[in-house]
Amino acid sequence: MDPAEFRRAGHAVVDWIADYWATVEQRPVAPADPPGTVAAALPSEPPTTGGEPVEAILADLDSIVVPGLTHWQHPGFFGYFPGNTSGPSVLGDLVSSGLGVQGMLWASSPACTELETVMMDWLAHLMDLPQRFRSTGAGGGVIQDSASSATLVATLTALHRASGGRWRQTGIDRRYRAYTSIHGHSSIEKAVRIAGLGSDGIRSIEVDPDTQAMLPGALRAAIEADLAAGDVPAIVVATIGTTSTTAVDPLPEIGAICAEYGIWLHVDAAYAGAAAVCPELRWTHAGLEYADSYCFDPHKWLLTGFDCDAFWVADRAELIEALTVLPEFLRNAASESGAVIDYRDWQVPLGRRFRSLKLWFVLRWYGAEGLRAHIRSGVALAERFAERVRTDTRFELAAAHPFSLVCFRLRADDDTNAALLASVNATGRVHLTHTRVAGRYTLRLAVGSPQTTEAHIDEAWTLLSDAANTLLTR
Ligand code: PLP
């Protein structure tokens, strides 16, 4: 494909994406076809000769791929947590793909590293993160592919610290322990397992039954029991906005315990961290000055397409010491001068995409006020929905809703609630998912699409209310 062909095909693809966004609401939010439908519609072998026009590929996208998609950008998508993209994010990613540079070293493409450092400082400024995370001090930020990777990198660095640096040479030489609440994300268990601590290396700390947030007293008891058994507490992962209910763990108390015992504190704010662009939602940051590392996903609630996790450490030297490996073929004068950042040392893979471009496009297009408006709209729409639940005696709220997720259920058994979810999702107009809160089946409605309006919330409520009528009168 030469540049002239790319220009023509590229315009067609951009038109296709714009049309998709303009019409996505007319589609069912999630497909109803059985497993294997998409695969069966594709040829079993690749083409021998190339040269297929982009129009033919786009036609197959329309007829084969799109009908098999769950439409995360649909205004009726309320599942999981939001995963919204935006025009500026797509354009920034397109430029990144077009440039095709590798940012593993500063020397491998200096602007790739320097734009990322500045974007991470911009984000820290926008969210008013503690000074210790800024690159102007001992800390700094880096873009990881996901919050899961951020947790893994934090865990590895915590092991480096807890072992007094021996972990790099000898591997796991003691029983190191990680702690998170019973609602800590599954990626924490995975990180602990990858780090070699085994599944029993993680201690799941009980939560307050009212707030679903970690109980600091239970954390302290678990740490002391492990110390008494000769184990080494290495890392506590606290969550701002747990996946089930968006509970906020009490960082001031948890942080003080970590400081007392010299344990690494990682704060996972994958979804809810974005809320901190709004000053009125920054109460979530109380106690963040204790954290050794912190992450959130702009790819969830900040209009930046997957993948983009913003990860900061308070002491970048520890992170680099833990992860650096320097083969001869990467040696260069800039790295040896010590004056540059080599992000390959801040992550698991060597290679890295130019992800900061999409953040740069997003931050410049929306500005702080545009992003705040997006977050505030999500919070207000969630409150509108919660108000419907609160004032209907057939329903109950299952947890507080400080952000844009509402957890609720019918005052009925688990099977009836599961049937309610299946029934509204079958309409194709909305897509919700579920969790369990205190052992009980609970529906989750998470707002995040910039296309979602009050009318979509009201429609979701009408569908739920009508389905409840049918189920309760059976
Ligand atoms: N942590 C929390 C609290 C989450 O809610 C999620 C995903 O929803 C993750 C981590 C994992 O995020 P990622 O897909 O970026 O790894």
Give structural notes:
With 474 residues, the protein is an alpha/beta fold. It has three domains: 3-69, dopa decarboxylase, N-terminal domain; 101-353, Type I PLP-dependent aspartate aminotransferase-like (Major domain) (Aspartate Aminotransferase, domain 2); 366-472, Aspartate Aminotransferase, domain 1 (Alpha-Beta Complex). The chain contains 16 helices and eleven strands. The chain has helices at residues 3-23, 37-40, 54-65, 87-99, 110-126, 147-162, 167-170, 186-194, 216-228, 251-261, 298-301, 316-323, 333-337, 356-390, 414-426, 454-472; strands spanning 140-144, 176-181, 202-205, 232-239, 264-268, 293-296, 309-313, 395-397, 405-410, 433-437, 440-446. The strands form two sheets. A seven-stranded mixed sheet has the order 1-7-6-5-4-2-3, sandwiched between helices. Strands 8-9-11-10 form a four-stranded antiparallel sheet. Strand 8 and strand 9 form a beta hairpin. Helix 4 (87-99) runs antiparallel to helix 14. The mean pLDDT is 96. The site of pyridoxal-5'-phosphate (PLP) has 14 residues, from helix 6.
